[in-house]
Specification:
The structure holds 3 protein chains of 3 kinds. By secondary structure, chain A is mainly α. Chain A has 13 helices and no strands. In chain A, helix 6 packs antiparallel against helix 9. Chain A is globular. In chain A, about 55% of the residues are buried. A 5-stranded mixed β-sheet of chain B has the order 3-2-4-13-7. In chain B, strands 9-10-8-11 form a 4-stranded mixed β-sheet. By secondary structure, chain B is of the alpha/beta class. Chain C is mainly alpha-helical. Chain C has one domain: MetI-like fold (Orthogonal Bundle), CATH 1.10.3720.10. Chain C is built from 15 helices and 2 strands. In chain C, helix 1 packs parallel to helix 15, helix 5 runs parallel beside helix 9 and helix 6 packs antiparallel against helix 9. The interface between B and C is large, with 52 and 43 residues.
């Protein structure tokens, strides 16, 4: 027997499903459009924007790559890998100190590190420019490495510390009984146990660094050293009349992180959950 | 010595910052000797405006050739585009990281570097009468002259022209208009024939400024205009400004396909419309000619013609003036390789390299005498340079001739005129107050 | 919300719930001893980097904001509060504040309330596979950088080749086509809309994770009592994620006051400064108009606003902590 309630329920479910699917289309279609535009010709781009490309010009990708996107990509990889490693290592090291070692003024230290979460990078921008110039680091790899690491430590330490606090104290005691030093306990016992949160923070930091724009724009000045977000805007102004190549460059810039997200989705969501749950 | 003028109390506040910013340090060493015999070793940093296709290879090739001649010299090229060079230059200047050789426009832009002691005085080597100086057209050198001293190496000349598609004009029976009204009425003809009369993309703001500055030159008496560029002497109350702005809004609404929407269109899209044969005209610099009518574009087949933006018949200003000025390169006054930098710039302006620069695909009309010629350069470039040479005056771009605050007010004002959100009177008022504040 | 800021968003729940943990682990809270000092080696790298590159510049910025400073000659003159006085009289500064507020308000609607409702809808689905797929799909734009998303939407809004106007034409409502980013009254909203597209999935994911942590027994008990899905949402889900929503709100607002990337890429603050936000106006004042003292004053304004929000967040999370 079909009740009024169950009809409403089915209708409601149908409506919800339709809405969720429509939203998925809104999310995906622009991305699909971006990919398709990357293989069109300029004339097609200015024609019917919904049309499929007549001939698939994959050579646009090669052109984009040769016009600097290849170099930008390499720079982005270099900066992302080094700053992520530095950030996660320094943060895990600090988190260990904050949770499992007795240190003087630990509360002050903790507040100092975590308060960094609340500070907007824009505020420090102008002094940082002068500082890096005075240090001779302006427009170098080191500028970005230092900035990305410094500004990401608070958040990363936060997440790792929260995770470490949950590890039972017996772990350290067992390590201590074995005669392991604190440093050895960190490397051999605690760090491996923190693997899930480490993976999560690595993914979050990659996401941040890969996409960062403000510092990359201000602290690098073109030439051979430029990360993707800034390089892409250059590609736009340099080869503006060749828009399909710009689209191809955008796809090259976006793809690695999307792939990474799907590959590490499990860790990623778990990382967020861990962060929230504490 | 840089100035460190602030009271003691503030010193407390800024103490930490100054320690790092190095205020009080002796950064201004002896004036560099630009005429010294260069030591052919070291690294030369160069900030160019040749980023992107098709210009990028020019300095790369020069650097490679120079290194071949002098193997111990290496280069660090920072190649920016028209759009990005402004921000980049400011950033590098603010952080005192300017390279040995750097690009400059004429006008306030260059004056800032000269006044700030950042540009080496090149008079001993490049003033008219010197061997090197005599290879340049004198007016090009004078664009960078200040208080009798010559500062920049002029690389190429420039001017703004309306470029048109010859075939389309022929097809609809048009000839280059002789007056502003004629230009407006030609637009209707092109529109009826299904073409976008004038392609216009003002997303970045400066394309609008270029129209305005040329129209100001026509409508505002020359001496008034010059006085108004400097906030100290500016009055900015000439009725010619209002006429010019009204002409501009008429042009935007009657002639452009995008009209009020032009603020959302990139200038490159507009350039593309002329290149693809969709638009009849596009207002452009000589520097753009060879890339607009590039190899294989419909425009190249149809033929690119140029004419000076026509002035209204009764315009009270200088109707023979053309907007545009030479662009050049300054040598960093603090450079340790100043003599080498001079030598490199001499190399960049040899007759042979000047000819390369003036020919397609670069199409940058070299400031070196005789470089723009039938055998090197494309027709429109030769014609443009002839007109620039015949012009009564070269009017410097609005965004480099005056101080940044005033330029910025004009930029916002131009966008407001395009979008129709402010009247010419309101725009002039806002520029006046910006100029007032910049005194 | 930027990915960078989204990452900050993730921290908030942590911050909120984590506040009671601000003290050192109770088991280890002992008296300082001589040996303790050596243990500072653990936190020294982090503290050192933060002190030098985060805190010191903050202090320096305050110093810069009372100077007038010529970038060409390097000369600096003390001008007291003049930069601040000019800032309060600068219509574009206030325009920027208003735009930041729009940013904050619209983001709260879509990225807090909208994302929460969406998360509840998704978690209400019966198929686990669909739940996972949708969460992931909605998240994709957040993995795309704001630069790419900004450029992409620049083209989507473009009057001549964009799909937005083409879609409006196709839907028979061609009268609504316009240069979305080229008009003073629509530019900032075009940017904000892009930012919602880019950021809502991240927030949805966060809420979904939070909702999952609500014990299912609560829902089951309610369902047995004959409570419908709407009432279950309002009487169970909403109160239990309320703390998180409030915190998300504060972080969203804080993020909205730090916007820079997308505005820079899409309009540069134009036309006629109509889409200027504090971040881009700071940049323009300093790096384009050479007025670094003034730019530092704007930076101080951003600092004061974001710090107040952070303090509000701390205060709030201390007061209302919901345990479950």
């Amino acid at each position: 027997m079909v009740t009024r309630g169950s009809v409403l329920l089915v209708l409601g479910r149908g409506f919800v499903s339709a809405f969720l699917l429509a939203l998925a289309v809104v999310v995906l279609y622009p991305l699909l459009w971006m990919v398709l535009n990357g293989v069109k010709s300029n004339a097609e781009l200015f024609g019917n924007p919904f049309a499929l490309p007549v001939a698939w010009r994959w050579e646009n990708y090669a052109t984009a790559w040769n016009r600097g996107v290849g170099d930008y990509l390499m720079t982005s990889v270099l900066v992302t890998v080094t700053s992520t490693l530095a950030t996660v290592f320094i943060s895990a090291w600090a988190a260990y100190g904050l949770t499992r070692v007795r240190i003087p003024f630990s509360r002050t230290v903790l507040i100092l590190i975590l308060a960094g979460l609340m500070l907007a990078p824009t505020v420090a921008l102008i002094p940082l420019v002068r500082m890096f110039q005075a240090m001779g680091l302006y427009n170098t790899f080191w500028a970005l490495l230092i900035l990305y690491t410094a500004f990401r430590i608070p958040f990363t330490t936060f997440l790792i510390r929260a995770y470490m606090m949950d590890l039972p104290a017996e772990v350290d005691e067992a390590a201590a009984v074995d005669g392991a030093s604190k440093a050895r306990a960190f490397w051999q016992v605690i760090l491996p146990m923190c693997r899930p949160i480490i993976v999560s923070t690595v993914i979050l930091n990659i996401l941040f660094t890969w996409n960062e724009y403000l510092f990359a724009m201000i602290f690098t000045s073109g030439g051979d050293f430029q990360t993707l977000p800034v390089g892409l805007t250059n590609l736009m102004s340099r080869h503006g009349t060749d828009y399909p190549v710009v689209f191809a460059g955008m796809v090259i810039a976006a793809a690695p992180v999307i792939v990474l997200f799907f590959a590490g989705q499990r860790y990623f969501i778990r990382g967020l959950a861990d962060g929230i749950g504490k | 010595m840089r100035k460190c003028t602030y009271p003691k109390a503030a010193a407390l506040l800024v103490g930490a910052s100054l320690a790092l910013s190095g205020c009080g340090g002796s950064s201004a060493a002896e004036p560099v000797d630009v005429s010294a015999e260069p030591k052919y070793s070291g690294k030369l940093g160069i900030l160019t405006k040749f980023g992107g296709d098709p210009l990028e290879p020019y300095f790369e090739d020069l650097a490679a050739q120079y290194t071949e001649l002098h193997p111990d010299v290496s280069f660090e090229l920072i190649q920016e585009t028209d759009q990005s060079i402004k921000d980049k230059t400011k950033t590098l200047t603010a952080s005192q990281a300017m390279p040995d050789i750097y690009f400059t426009w004429a006008g306030n832009w260059a004056d800032n570097f000269i006044d700030g002691g950042l540009a080496a005085d090149l008079s001993p080597v490049i003033a008219p009468g010197t061997d090197w100086g005599d290879t340049f057209g004198e007016s090009s050198l004078e664009a960078f002259e200040k208080d009798g001293k010559y500062y920049a190496v002029p690389l190429y000349n420039n001017g703004k022209f309306m470029g048109y598609n010859k075939k389309i004009f022929e097809e609809v029976g048009l000839t280059p208009p002789a007056s502003f009204d004629e230009l407006i009425s030609s637009c209707a003809v092109l529109k009826d024939a299904g073409y976008e009369p004038i392609a216009f993309g003002n997303k970045d703001g400066w394309p609008g400024l270029h129209y305005l500055q040329q129209l100001f030159a026509y409508n505002v008496p020359a001496d008034v205009l010059q006085a108004d560029f400097d906030p100290e002497t500016a009055k900015l109350d000439d009725p010619g400004y209002l006429t010019a702005m009204e002409e501009f809004t008429t042009l935007v609404s009657e002639c452009t396909g995008s009209g009020k929407d032009s603020n959302g269109v990139l200038y490159t899209t507009a350039q593309q419309a002329l290149a693809e044969g969709k638009a009849g005209m596009y207002y452009q610099e000589i520097l753009e000619f060879d890339s607009t009518a590039a190899e294989g574009t419909p425009l190249q087949k149809d033929g690119l013609g140029i004419f000076k933006l026509p002035a209204a018949g009764d315009a009270p200003g200088d109707t023979e003036a053309i907007e545009g000025s030479p662009e050049g390169y300054l040598i960093n006054a603090r450079s340790e390789n100043a003599a080498l930098a001079v030598d490199f710039m001499k190399f960049a302006t040899t007759a042979e390299n000047a000819a390369t620069l003036s020919a397609p695909p670069y199409g940058q009309p070299s400031a070196v005498k005789g470089a723009v010629s039938e055998e090197n350069s494309s027709g429109p470039v030769i014609e443009g340079i002839e007109q620039v040479n015949d012009a009564s005056a070269g009017i410097i771009w609005l965004d480099s001739v005056t101080v940044p605050d005033v330029a910025d007010a004009w930029l916002a004002g131009g966008e407001a005129l395009v979008g129709g959100s402010r009247s010419p009177e309101e725009v002039l008022e806002s520029v006046r107050s910006a100029s007032e504040a910049a005194k | 919300m930027t990915v960078a800021n989204s990452a900050r968003a993730a921290a908030v729940p942590v911050a909120g719930a984590g506040v009671p943990n601000l003290s050192s682990p109770p088991a280890r809270a002992g008296r300082k001893d001589a040996r303790g000092w050596r243990n500072l080696i653990w936190v020294l790298p982090a503290i050192g980097l933060l002190a030098a590159f985060v805190y010191l510049p903050l202090v320096q910025n305050l110093g810069f904001s009372v100077l007038e400073w010529d970038i060409y000659s390097g000369g600096q003159t003390f001008v007291g509060a003049e930069n601040y006085a000019r800032m309060f009289e600068d219509p574009i500064f206030w325009k920027s504040v208003v735009n930041n507020l729009w940013y904050a308000g619209i983001s709260i609607v879509f990225q807090v309330f909208g994302a929460l409702a969406l998360a509840a809808l998704i978690e209400g689905l019966r198929s686990d596979r669909w739940r996972r797929t949708l969460r992931a799909v909605y998240f994709i734009p957040s993995a795309v950088s704001l630069t790419v998303a900004g450029l992409l939407f620049y083209f989507i809004y473009e009057p001549q080749m964009g799909i937005l106007n083409a879609a409006l034409d196709g839907a028979g409502i061609g009268q609504f086509t316009q240069a979305w980013l080229g008009q003073e009254n629509t530019a900032i909203f075009g940017i904000i809309a892009m930012s919602q597209w880019q950021g809502f999935g991240y927030c949805t994911l966060l809420f979904a994770v939070a909702l999952q942590r609500i014990p299912t027994e609560l829902y089951e008990a309610a369902a047995i009592d004959g409570v419908g899905p709407f009432r279950r949402f309002f009487s169970i889900s909403l109160p239990l994620v309320r703390e998180m929503s409030s915190l998300m709100m504060i972080v969203t607002v804080s993020g909205a006051f730090q916007v820079f990337n997308e505005v820079m890429v899409m309009t540069g603050g134009g036309p006629n400064n109509s889409s200027q936000v504090l971040g881009t106006w700071l940049y323009r004042s300093g790096f384009v108009k050479n007025d670094f003292g003034y730019a530092s004053a704007i930076a101080t304004a951003i600092f004061v606003i974001t710090l107040s929000l952070a303090v509000l967040q701390l205060w709030y999370s201390r007061r209302r902590r919901v345990e479950w």
